[in-house]
Amino acid sequence: MRIARTESVTTHALLVLASVVAVFPLVSIVVSSFDGSSGGLSLDSYSTAWTQGRFGSALLSSALVSVTVVVVTVLLASLAGYALATMRVPGGKVILGLLLLGLVLPYEVTVLPLYELLAGWNLIDTYWALILPQIALSVPLGVLWMRTFFASVPQELLEAARIDGTSRFQTLRLVVLPIAGPALTTLGTVLFLFTWNEFLLALILVPDNAAVQTVPLALSFFSGAARSSDPAVTAAAAVLVALPVLLAYTVLQRRLISGLTEGAVK
Amino acid sequence: MSTVAPARERDTAPTPTGIRRSSRPRRHLTSLSWSSLLYVAPALAFFAVFVVYPIGISVWYSFYAYDGLTEGTPVGLDNYTAVFTDPDLRAALLHSLVLLFFYAALPVAVGLLLAGAMSRIRVYGLTLFRALLFVPQILSSVVVAVAWRNLLAEDGPVNALLRSVGLGRFTTSWLGNFDTALPSIGVVGTWVEYGLCMVLFLSGIVAIDRSTYEAARLDGAGAVREFFSITLPALRPQISIALILTVTFALRNFDLIWNTTRGGPGTSTTVPSLYVYQDAFQNRMLGRASALAIVLTVVILAVVVAVQLLLRERDGRGRGLLRRGPVRPARKVQP
Q1: Strand (E) positions, chain B?
Q2: How many beta carbons lie within 10 A of that of residue B8, not counting itself?
Q3: What ipTM goes with this model?
Q4: Terminal-residue alpha carbon distance, chain B
Q5: Where does the chain cross the membrane (chain A) (predicted)?
Q6: pLDDT digits over A210-221, tens only?
Q7: Which residue among A239, A257, B170, B250 is least enclosed by CB atoms within 10 Å?
């Protein structure tokens, strides 16, 4: 089939334009973060942001919270997803319905009682206040994701393991999880991005303890305070916050995107 | 951003091999297994304590006048009446409608336009385009806010561009001006979402059998006909997901607005989620905050269900918003 060359060129031009627009804001803060006060290129903004905005400690907090949430959620989700895909769970339909609801739920409806619950346990302004609710809010996506994967595992494989005399838990550990690598990686990446970027929960649940505040919160306070004074320093701070996420994305983007788009539509 | 991934009930389907029909493995798949609850319990416990229980408490609070310190008094539906009659809150709901256009309608439309164009050609560098278009999705909204505050500032690149092309009289402090603040936030939302829509639609386009297009072209279909007869129907599942994601993002959006305008100037960019935060943590009106949060939740659920119903596959029968299933679209273009 021959399609006019101009059509192909126009479409590619549109795609290039759309892609440029998508990355332009990011490029623009990277560029302005290198603006030296005397006009040349410099890294001064980064050292200023690093020391004034306490981003070192914020990055550590974010890493601690994100890794914990990802590891625990993936573990819980694998167990629950496995059961929901391969066993007849009593009340399974109700559980699935609740989890689906959990996917689209606005956090706003949970935060106020969450605050009071955690305040009652004296956990406000601690890491626990960031970690525990984040795990709970990641559970729906995690369980549904792993359930979809486990349901795609050939039934024969489970039966063969069963005939070989493994228990159900052994089947999960020795047969199914070893082939779940790609599904686990994609889920882990998605959960990492969500947790790393989460803002509202941090704003509400760790309002007064700078030592445990995560990078989005640190950036929000910092840019609110330093906004007008020095755009280059704010830009550098934003780049610092985005950097770990961009690194993870560069390494895992192919799996992340195809996993997300296929998983979403299936 | 989240995904909806309901898998088919694979576990109860008969095995195709037919071997060992009466073996134990099959039986354990068909009878209720109470021990399976042990696997589900840990995840469910977290979900119950930190999600389901708080929602229950919110529902409870929504029927009380409660400041978080003194004993609350039951007020029936007053909080809900307030949500729908308070002019400020009504304005916030209207702002959400404006944002729905920018956050959902516009990105889906842009995505569809490009998807339609791309369906007719072989796209080179698809992986790279996908990766770049997806970038706004992975950034923290605080980073996005910082970047766009720079772009839209009085002396920022957007105004510089306007001046350089002789449109200097349109320059303004985009996020600080009563008339432009809300649409400006809308544009930021469009920027965040259009790439996601395009990537979703791209994955749908790639899955369409090329011979369908070739057959349509042999039958003399043009670009527009191709789009409405082949591309659009085939993309129905992707459109449904895109709408659910973007609409949910629009309605529960807090971070972006908090970090760009805090609802200002005045109340020109306030949205319900902002009021939930302020009522709960600044004004100590916990009952009203809860009622508002619940109304917001119900609205989001209603929209999600509506989108699902409208765009659901119906085995190719001609109902719903888009008229045809992707299975036999080529027949429609027969002369």
Answers
A1: 64-65, 73-74
A2: 11
A3: 0.90
A4: 43
A5: 12-34, 54-82, 94-115, 127-150, 171-196, 232-252
A6: 889 999 999 998
A7: B170
Q: What's the average model confidence in pLDDT over B244-250? A: 92
Which of A147, A155, A266 lies nearest to residue B15, judging by beta carbons?
A: A155
Cross-chain Cβ contact B33/A89 below 8 Å: yes
Cα–Cα distance, A130 to A201 (Å, whole number): 7
CA distance B288 to B282: 12
pTM listed for this prediction: 0.86
Question: Across all residues in chain A, what is the average pLDDT?
Answer: 88
Q: What is d(CA B30, CA A160) in angstroms, rounded to the nearest whole number?
A: 17
Please, where are the H alpha helices in B208-334?
Answer: 210-218, 223-226, 232-234, 236-251, 255-260, 272-281, 286-311
B132: left (phi over 0), alpha (psi -120 to 50) or beta: alpha
Alpha-carbon distances of A20 from B12, B129, B131, B150, B327, rounded to whole Å: 48, 10, 12, 17, 35
Q: What percent of chain B has pLDDT over 90?
A: 45
Please check the confidence at residue B59 and state whether its pLDDT lies above 60. Answer: yes
* CB-CB neighbors (< 8 A) of A235 in chain B: 146, 150
Q: Model confidence at B325, in pLDDT bands (50, 70, 90)?
A: very low
**Alpha carbons B6 and A145: distance in angstroms, whole number:** 8
Pairing of strands B73-74, B64-65: antiparallel
Contact B36 A142 (CB under 8 A): no
Bridge partners (DSSP) listed for residue B32: A88
Helix or strand or coil: residue B32?
strand
Kindly tell me the sign of the dihedral angle through the C-alpha atoms of A47, A53, A54, A60.
negative
For A225-245, how does the pLDDT look when each residue is reduced to its tens digit (9 = 90+)? Answer: 654 567 888 899 999 999 989
Tell me if A201 sits within 8 A of A133, measured CB to CB.
yes
Over residues B261-281, the pLDDT tens digits come to 998 898 999 999 999 999 888
pLDDT at A266: 55
pLDDT given for residue A136 in this prediction: 96
Give the one of B6, B15, B132 whose C-beta lies nearest to A19's C-beta: B132
**Residue A172: what pLDDT?**
86
| H or E element that contains B20 | none
B143, B254, B275, B295: best to mutate for the A interface, most A CBs within 10 A: B143
Angle of CA points A24, A27, A30, to nearest 5°:
155
The CATH architecture that domain A34-261 belongs to is Orthogonal Bundle (1.10)
Spatial distance between the Cα atoms of A134 and A183, rounded to a whole number of angstroms: 20
Backbone angles phi, psi at B74, to 5 degrees: -70, 135
Which chain B residues contact residue A260 at CB under 8 A? 3
Which has more pLDDT, B101 or B284?
A: B101
Question: In angstroms, rounded to a whole number, what is the distance separating the alpha carbons of residues A192 and A248?
Answer: 9
